[in-house]
Design brief:
Length: 341
C-alpha cells in the first residue's frame, strides 16, 4: 500500500510502497479516506530535536484520519466492515491503575500512532478495537478527519465551566481557533484570542472569537479595559506553547482564575509564581483527549449545530502532500486535509 514514511533521519517525508498492516483478533483494519496534517507531523517532517529523540525510523507518520472499516478481528463484535470511523491516536496499556479506573487518558504507558507505532498517512491502518470511534454518517468527512485536534480543543476548553465566563485563548493556531468556537458554543461571554500572526487572528474571528489581539501591537490589559472587564479573565486556555504568551495570561487572570494548558513549551520556562500563589490560580495540564468522553462531547456538539469547518483552509490529494506541508510551514493555514481516495 501507499504510505507517507519517515524513511531517513533527516528533514522530509517520502511516499512509499509498504506492506499493508495485518490485524490480530482484537483489531480493526481501516481504509483511510482523509487525513489532517498536525503540527506534530511538521515537527517530524522538519526532524527537530523532539522528533529525532522520539520517533524511530522508518515510521509511517500521521494520526488524524477518517476512514471505513474493511476487516475486523474474530473477537470484534461492535464494529463492522463499511462503518465510518476515526481512531483515538493514543494506544494505552489497559491494565494500569488509571486505565482500570476508566481514566485511560492518564495511562503512563501510552503509545502514539504515527509517532511510536505505524500511523494513518497510509491507505490502511490497523488499530485495537478499543481505539476506534464510530462516526455518525451525517458528519462532514473533512471534520471527521480532524477529531483528534478538535478533541484537544474540546478537552482543554471544557476543563472548566464556561457559561457566562470571560475566556482568554493564547495562540490562534488551528486548536486555539477550534477552542474559540467551542467556548462560544459552551456559553462563554468574551472569547478573546491572541496571536502574533494576523492571518491566524482573522481565522479566529471566523471561528467566533469575540475579540482578537495581536500582542505585538496591543496589550491584553488594554483590551480588558476596552471590554469593561474589571477583574481579569475567568478561564485561560494556553494554546501557543509560547512562554511570553503564558506569562501574559498569568498577569491577566482574575483571582481564582483557572488555566488549562495544552501548548507545549519547547524548553523550561520561568513564570512569576507569586502571581499563581497570591491570586490563587489553578493550572491544569492537558494531554490528548479523554477516552471517550471528549469524543462523545465532540459528536453531540456537532449534532447540536457547532460548526468548526471554517478551520479547514486547504485540501490536497495525498500525492501532493508536499504542498500541504509547505502551506503548514508558511503559517498561513488552518487545518490542511490530505485526501487518500
Ligand atoms: P500552532 O503552532 O499551529 O499554533 C500556535 C499559535 O501560537 C501560532 O499561530 C503562533 O503564531 C501563536 N503564538 C506564537 N507566539 C505567541 C504569543 N506570544 N502570543 C500568542 N500566540 C502566539 O499549534 P496548534 O496545532 O494549534 O497547537 C497548539 C499548541 O498545542 C501547540 O503548542 C501544540 O504543540 C500543542 N499541542 C498539545 C497537545 C497536547 O496533547 N497537549 C496536542 C496537540 C497540540
Ligand atoms: Zn494504562
Amino acid at each position: 500500500m501507499k504510505a507517507l514514511v519517515k524513511r531517513h533521519a533527516k528533514p522530509g517525508l517520502w511516499m512509499e510502497d509498504v506492506p499493508r498492516p495485518t490485524i490480530g483478533i482484537n483489531d480493526v483494519l481501516i481504509k483511510v479516506e482523509r487525513t489532517g496534517i498536525c503540527g506534530t507531523d511538521v515537527h517530524i517532517y522538519n526532524w527537530d530535536a523532539w522528533a529525532s529523540k522520539t520517533v524511530p525510523v522508518p515510521m509511517v507518520v500521521g494520526h488524524e484520519f477518517v476512514g471505513r472499516i474493511v476487516e475486523v478481528g474474530s473477537n470484534v463484535t461492535d464494529f463492522h466492515p463499511g462503518e465510518l470511523v476515526s481512531g483515538e491516536g493514543h494506544v494505552v496499556c489497559g491494565r494500569c491503575r488509571n486505565c482500570l479506573a476508566g481514566r485511560r487518558h492518564l495511562c503512563a504507558d501510552t503509545a502514539g500512532i504515527g509517532v511510536n507505532r505505524p500511523g494513518a498517512f497510509a491507505e490502511y491502518i490497523a488499530l485495537p478495537m478499543t481505539n476506534v470511534w464510530h462516526h455518525d454518517e451525517s458528519v462532514d468527512h473533512d471534520v471527521a478527519s480532524i477529531f483528534d485536534p478538535f478533541g484537544n480543543a474540546v478537552h482543554t476548553a471544557l476543563s472548566f465551566p464556561l457559561l457566562g465566563e470571560d475566556v482568554l485563548i493564547t495562540g490562534a493556531g488551528p486548536i486555539g481557533c477550534m477552542a474559540a468556537a467551542v467556548a462560544r458554543y459552551a456559553g462563554a461571554r468574551a472569547v478573546v484570542v491572541t496571536d502574533v500572526n494576523p492571518w491566524r487572528l482573522k481565522l479566529a474571528t471566523k471561528l467566533g472569537a469575540t475579540r482578537v489581539v495581536d500582542v505585538r501591537s496591543e496589550s491584553i490589559a488594554d483590551v480588558q479595559k476596552q471590554l469593561g472587564m474589571k477583574e481579569g479573565f475567568d478561564v485561560g486556555l494556553e494554546m501557543s506553547g509560547n512562554p511570553s504568551a503564558f506569562r501574559d495570561m498569568l498577569q491577566n487572570m482574575c483571582h481564582g482564575g483557572k488555566i488549562a494548558m495544552l501548548g507545549i513549551p519547547s524548553e523550561d520556562m520561568a513564570i512569576d509564581w507569586n502571581t499563581v500563589v497570591f491570586n490563587m490560580l489553578t493550572i491544569k495540564g492537558i494531554y490528548g483527549r479523554e477516552m471517550y468522553e471528549t469524543w462523545y462531547k465532540m459528536t453531540v456538539m456537532l449534532q447540536g449545530g457547532l460548526d468548526i469547518s471554517p478551520v479547514i483552509t486547504h485540501r490536497f490529494a495525498a500525492d501532493d502532500f508536499q504542498q500541504g506541508f509547505d502551506v503548514m510551514l508558511s503559517g498561513e493555514s488552518g487545518k490542511v486535509i490530505l485526501n487518500w481516495n
